[in-house]
Amino acid sequence: xxxxxxxxxxxxxxxxxxxxxxxxxxxxxxxxxxxxxxxxxxxxxxxxxxxxxxxxxxxxxxxxxxxxxxxxxxxxxxxxxxxxxxxxxxxxxxxxxxxxxxxxxxxxxxxxxxxxxxxxxxxxxxxxxxxxxxxxxxxxxxxxxxxxxxxxxxxxxxxxxxxxxxxxxxxxxxxxxxxxxxxxxxxxxxxxxxxxxxxxxxxxxxxxxxxxxxxxxxxxxxxxxxxxxxxxxxxxxxxxxxxxxxxxxxxxxxxxxxxxxxxxxxxxxxxxxxxxxxxxxxxxxxxxxxxxxxxxxxxxxxxxxxxxxxxxxxxxxxxxxxxxxxxxxxxxxxxxxxxxxxxxxxxxxxxxxxxxxxxxxxxxxxxxxxxxxxxxxxxxxxxxxxxxxxxxxxxxxxxxxxxxxxxxxxxxxxxxxxxxxxxxxxxxxxxxxxxxxxxxxxxxxxxxxxxxxxxxxxxxxxxxxxxxxxxxxxxxxxxxxxxxxxxxxxxxxxxxxxxxxxxxxxxxxxxxxxxxxxxxxxxxxxxxxx
Length: 530
What we know:
Number of domains: 2
CATH class of the largest domain: Mainly Beta
CATH architecture of the largest domain: 7 Propeller
Largest sheet: 5 strands, antiparallel
Mean pLDDT: 86
Oligomer: single chain
Strand content: over 45%
């Protein structure tokens, strides 16, 4: 197992420096004061109301003479400081008070945070602990890779993709089940004498799995949609093919709220153009209930699909038939029966291709993929829309070489995380690439993972510990010509107070923290009642 690049710094120990330290607890009943009889009197706990709670905040103990502390003079207020882009860094705040000995001066330090400028307060300092990441390669002596990744109900993972090392044909559907530490528990192959490739995976409501992709071994055409349903141990329960006499392939799969399945991809067998976006809805047994094609006279296809909160669907991919470029991001919104409600294109003069889609917490959408419209190389591209698909903002990420996003999640803090590959950064000719942004798409941090050869991440999930898991292919590690590679990232969240000097206080934000985007530091001098 390889030590990942992007390893997080050693965690700092937390020291709460309350300079007005007491060994005896003090408790008193004090009535809220409508009109404080002394000044200054401040909203020390930032709840918007001046009352007894502010007095308790200041009165952390007893005054030197044994009388309660009942007022404080504010000596310094930093105001709200934006530290959105300071993950894994020290933040030094200059107060200029000339405190020569923090242990001998009565100073009360208040540090609060917010995730969003108008959000609720964060009050508890401290790193939540550092969880070390790990990585594992799976495969044989030939080419094997992962295309899809799912968190499983037992706390482990399931990876789906393609294997030439195992199975019956020249390439088979491949399902690998691991525990929470990435140790393989079992793996299964599904296919015939020709080629099959799984591109999408879900754990189903019954604890089993469903995989979707394409098959050349079965069906009626040169390639068909292929849907495989298994039990919880990966044993096949049934499989279905969908297609016509030409080439058809699925890239995305969801289990729908009625227990059935929805698959999206491309078709050359049906529709109006050279290739069209194809959407197939089935019942719980994989029987087709309806199918729809969307497209124009040129090439159009889907890479991503979500069931929306209104019971309909949204599909994302690329269109050459519509838009302004030689291929634009394409977002298609349908009702529950697949009837188009609206479509939107996003692009400029060259090529854009959407690979991933999420419906965001505000009811809108975020699409990720690549663009080659801003130079000669690929860059990762992120588009955020409102609920009607109107673009709110667009961001480009990358360097001087090719960089692309294949997967996207909305983070727990309202930001976004993209995974794919980079040739601009990292150690090899291509590395796994993970980009974390805030809610407006501004980069907070990036990580690369890889060796001296090529790696490419194709799937991403956010894990329960606040980290991320990525799956794809590695040429640097493993046993074969290319192996499935699974990376679980380090986790370091929170904000810690690490140093105090005569005129400064230094804080450190966790390297993968998602919450402390804004911080406010205030210093008071508590005073005893006269």
